[in-house]
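ok posting inputs for the magnesium ion job
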Amino acid sequence: MQPETKFESYDPRFDALLRPDSTLLWHCAGSAWAEGPVYFAEGDYLLWSDTNNDIMWRWSDAEGQSVFRQPSHHSNGNTRDREGRLVTCEHGRRRVSRTEPDGEVITLVDRYRGKPLNSPNDVVVKSDGTVWFTDPPYGILSDREGHKADQEQLGCYVFRFDPRSDELTVVADDRDKPNGLAFSPDESILYVGDTGRSHDPGGWHHIFAYDVIGGERLANRRVFAEVEPGNPDGFRLDRHGNLFTSSGDSVQVYSPAGELLGKIMVPEASANCTFGGPGRDRLFITATTSLYSIVLNTRGVQSP
Ligand code: MG
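and the output
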């Protein structure tokens, strides 16, 4: 049975993002914690991670749901690089991997200063090909979504990795549990979610904004949004710079100034979302057990 489509609108700018046929569709269940959706225009299909079940799923309108990769090494966030290759955070191997055109999965990066990463969580690729990712410890805190292990990094960093030089740089060391991340449409701002509240009732559940300096450094940190209820586990932006984030009750939509414009209510706690569909106007939502989508009157910025 399809869920009821419900919105909470706090601003006319939210209503303008909806179409008369904007209906929340449920597509399939079976995940324990659905995360990391990534869309492939060629083939019109979506992949996502079922982190705890150690599976990556594939779904399309035409073919429904099937297993894409098992084991997935407890994959989490996914994206595509500028050549369209799948880039994946893997808790199990504590690495960021890339899937080559022949299907081989190679390690992009798995160590910093000679020691294993914590458990890369979410990843984006900038237009210059550099790979930016977060490294909280969720995959090593227990065997539930990875393999329990000691943390060897001194902190939970946001990294920038340059595949051309293999250079790995810490761009932010001021976060507790950095999680989702995304660039503004012109890549002048990097948004980073901090989900410290997951293990500390008084912890962060906020999205921070940083200015991107010279395309490779961050400065001028400020709170962009306080997400309530739940956590900003993952988010994406549309072409106007509006930010669509997961939360405990909905996909919440924030203006470029950080104003909460409205909510697309989702029956389950959402973990992440991504724009897809041939027109880039269909928001796919991974929410606990299930995959949902809704067509909107806007388009995503992430590419390809
Ligand atoms: Mg995440």
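notes: The longest strand covers residues 217-226. The first helix runs from residue 12 to 15.
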